[in-house]
Amino acid sequence: MAILAQSDIRNNSGDVIYRNVGGIIRMQILEHSPNTSISGSANGTLFSVSFTKLLSASESNIIVESHIWGHGANSGVSGPYLEISGSGNRDYNHTYQYEGGQGNTPIHGMSWWTTLGAGSHTITAGWSPNNGSSGESPFTTLNTNQGQSDSRYRKHVSRLLVMEVVK
């Protein structure tokens, strides 16, 4: 059994952050709320939001959990992803349950990045099916409005939970 000793590190501002290896040092909830029509193209962007990473790539990783709301089923296989500027890769570990019809559909998933430096970064949520065929967006509308196609619906807001964890 390994015992992890507590140690300190400094961010770019020189502030000391006390932590254990693997501990969360910062959590940010990023929201995107506009009700937006989604194109039926082969791939596309749902939305982009920005966050700030405190520590260098050698000191911390970024984990992102997604909860992205859509309405109006369009395709059962669309390749939903998250991508962070400067990361050099997309993470396709996000999925949704396709049931057809006009119900609300959330995209859920978790992504992990290990090579991001400190500073401001942009996360883009989108879709890109492996075969590149068109008409494959996950839904027709991002973020359901109250009463959209059914008076029982409430307003929905898409959220990303961004966690910076010490290596």
Specify the biggest β-sheet: 7 strands, antiparallel
- The stretches of 5 or more residues where confidence is low (pLDDT under 50) are 1-6
Distance between the termini: 18 Å
> Which sequence of SSEs, written as H and E, runs from N to C?
EEEEEEEEEEEEE
Number of helices: 0
Task: Characterise this structure.
- By secondary structure, the protein is mainly beta.
- The protein has one domain (28-166): Jelly Rolls (Sandwich).
- It contains no helices and 13 strands.
- It has strands spanning 7-10, 16-19, 24-32, 36-37, 44-53, 60-73, 80-84, 90-91, 94-95, 104-113, 119-127, 139-142, 158-166.
- Strands 3, 4, 6, 9, 10, 12 and 13 form a 7-stranded antiparallel sheet that branches. The protein has a 4-stranded antiparallel sheet with strand order 5-11-7-8, with no helix packed on it. A two-stranded antiparallel sheet has the order 1-2.
What would a concise description of this structure say?
By secondary structure, the protein is mainly β. It has strands at residues 7-10, 16-19, 24-32, 36-37, 44-53, 60-73, 80-84, 90-91, 94-95, 104-113, 119-127, 139-142, 158-166.
